[in-house]
Amino acid sequence: MEKRTLDKELSGNAYPGRGIVIGRSEDGTKAVTAYFIMGRSANSRNRIFVEDGEGIRTEAFDPSKMEDPSLIIYAPVRVLGNKTIVTNGDQTDTIYEGMDKQQTFEQSLRTRTYEPDEPNFTPRISGILHIVEGTFNYAMSILKSDNGNPDSTNRFTFAYENPVSGEGRFLHTYMGDGNPLPSFEGEPTRVAIEGDIDAFTNMLWDNLNEDNKVSLFVRFIDIASGKYETRIINKNK
């Protein structure tokens, strides 16, 4: 698979929806993850990311303007021991609870399908980073309708062992704007992971569509120690 640059992937797509990036830093010492949300409606755009323990949650920027909290208020990031879970919905909790009961990432998601937002049937995208004894691996999942057929769910899991430095994978909900919105297709995109946490964060934010971007989370985790740095950018301030 050709390795692409995230600046071009993002700037060339006005509406990738919600997106997860996972990979390894250029110097090989950090596990990297990012999660962003975008919105077309006033309700979707009325959000911010806030820290919640070791993870984050979405919150209404102006609670008086919140119309429907379902599907937009959730915890995108939670930490379970040496595992960091990143998703685009409340399946974060499903994965956390399942893995806490010794289920695998894939088994935990067997109880979930795509989002019930007809006619889009937005895919549920999820990722998990596992760091143990100086090693790092990760997996990504997408649950989607079968080409818009709500009676059939397609489940795909992609696992990456000992990922190489300066590379990652990018998984997002939509191929682009549309009505209905077209679901992501294929394997997560192979992308370059470049720069330190601030350079990487700024690159992502600067290349997300100005009208549609809402919030961005980035975390660099030291593979040797497990210590991490986090950056959050909210359009609403």
Describe this structure in words.
The chain has a 6-stranded antiparallel beta sheet, covered by helices on one side. Strands 5-6-7-8-9 form a 5-stranded antiparallel beta sheet, with helices on one face. Helix content is 15%, strand content 41%. The chain is globular and about 45 Å long. The protein has helices at residues 6-11, 42-45, 91-100, 105-108, 197-207; strands at 19-24, 30-38, 47-52, 55-60, 77-80, 83-87, 124-132, 135-146, 149-161, 167-172, 189-192, 213-222, 228-234. The chain starts with 5 loop residues before the first helix and ends with a strand. β12 (213-222) and β13 (228-234) form a beta hairpin. It is built from 5 helices and 13 strands. With 237 residues, it is mainly beta.
What brief labels describe this structure?
237 residues, 13 strands, 5-stranded antiparallel β-sheet, mainly beta, Glutamine Phosphoribosylpyrophosphate, subunit 1, domain 1, 15% helix
